[in-house]
Amino acid sequence: MKSRLVAMSYSLVGVLLVCGVWALLSSVVAPDLPSPLKTWEESRLYILSPWEKRGEMDQGILRMAAYSLVRVAKGFLLAIMIGAPLGFLLGSSPVFHRMFDPTIQVLRPISPLAWLPLGLILFRQSEPAALFTIALCSMWPTVINTASGVRSIPQDYLNVARVLRLSRWKKFTNVWLPATLPYLFTGFRLSLGIAWLVIVAAEMLTGTPGVGGFLWQEYNSLIYSHILLCILTIGIVGFVLDRLMGMAEARLRSV
Amino acid sequence: MYTRPLEISSLSKVFETPAGRFTAIKDFNARIAPDEFVALLGHSGCGKSTVLAIVAGLQEATLGGVIIDGTEISGPGLDRALVFQSPSLLPWMSALDNVLLAVRQSHPKLPLSAQRDLAVRYLNLVGAGEYMRQMPAELSQGTQQRVAIARAFSQEPRFLLLDEPFGMLDSMTRADLQDLLLRLWRQSPKTVLLVTHDVDEALYLCDRIILMTDGPEARVGMDLRVTLARPRSRQGLLDDPEYFRLRGVVFKYLELHSRQFRKEAA
Ligand SMILES: Nc1ncnc2c1ncn2[C@@H]1O[C@H](COP(=O)(O)OP(=O)(O)O)[C@@H](O)[C@H]1O
Ligand SMILES: [Mg+2]
Fold first, then answer.
1. Å from CA of A210 to ligand 2 middle
2. Closest atom of ligand 1 relative to the B43 alpha carbon
3. What global pTM score does this model have?
4. Which architecture does CATH list for B6-79+158-265?
5. What ipTM describes this predicted complex?
6. Which residue in chain B is spatially nearest to A160 when comparing CA positions?
7. Which of A203, B170, B204, B216 is buried deepest, with most CB atoms within 10 A?
8. CB of B28 within 8 Å of any CB in chain A?
């Protein structure tokens, strides 16, 4: 308990130091950068009534974050629904691996900014284009981790499945899936992190309501403090998401 | 009742390695009668596990093959149960579920409750009944291996294939499990092929010892009948001159071959 308090006070000192540097920067080097105090004052409406809807692009910060989260959830689900089976295929079939691994290695580093225009051409609407982009960018860690999980199933377990003549389906549910689950979750966690990274780019370009869309609009309206509000919100939400996934993962490993 | 032996016929196994072709087994021949308890003995690395894996159907012979009832095997079958060297229980299932998985495969027509009863019965037989709800990681290695033996017997197989099943256990636990194996074999006789490099284990348990030559190109070097009356007791064997004669024969064989092996390697 005591060591926890100490740790927390350390983090608090760290945050205060960063705020100090921020304040210093805004007052000395970059006059266009709003100070912490100014950011708070201009943002308090959004923070103190976080669920209020005043207009399409003028809503409480939690509400904005919720829009983004729903969009991320859809894109992420799409990503893992495609990514996990693809990973199982790649991991289980050397032929499949040889066939598609090069393509995947080429597709993997492509930025969301490159996919989005393609999505807009394909779907002619911003929402499906955003989901397309999130899914395409975020599925690779799931694909790659699942595949390496399948490849590292101990030979002993595979032999048990063969000796007991398990059917394909039983082999999958009794051996492959449980053996791969920890890898699968690591993949999910990384994928979710990327999905959240991509959301901002997707919303900025499509102008849909959400933290990213709001950020871009406030940049165009020259309200810089709101940009900082959005940045902080994105960071905190991303952190919480990662923690939640981490907790789910730890729980999984303990059973 | 089965009458025909299991035949290992002109078996050869070649591994393709980065360093080239490696002939691990060459022209290995053996016949094992129904309900016979046979040890496959040889120096570490001579190819015992490879022979066993081919009989199990987990590996393919390069030449020759394994014949059961006049038919060459092609892959694993529920008629051949396997106990591996390392406890190979699936770690995400309780002891009971591990055995139940085997029972469901080998007795697919039984109703679920009867399958469960059968699994519990075998867990009790091996003395692991009280641990059936626990996960493998919570069990000692000895208990894990008991459960693995229960899994193999619950399959009610015709052949039992064991690859150094007691190699990782301390000597007390090993003796317990050897006695357990003998008891189960007497209760439900089956053909047993036991891979081991423990001479006393082979003499205590088996009807016959197949001694392999050292690899590469390992084959049968000596086929030794263990002419010791059953039931045997460890204490009784120590008073039996025949036991020491057999022991002498085996050790002499092993020493000769390890010397040959060293000469070739040098
Ligand atoms: N998959 C493999 N690839 C290449 N060589 C192998 C392979 N499996 C076994 N060997 C070689 O075959 C020989 C016999 O191995 P093994 O059957 O495991 O011996 P044992 O069980 O008697 O200790 C060893 O020299 C080993 O290195
Ligand atoms: Mg071996």
1. 61
2. 22
3. 0.86
4. 3-Layer(aba) Sandwich (3.40)
5. 0.91
6. B88
7. A203
8. no
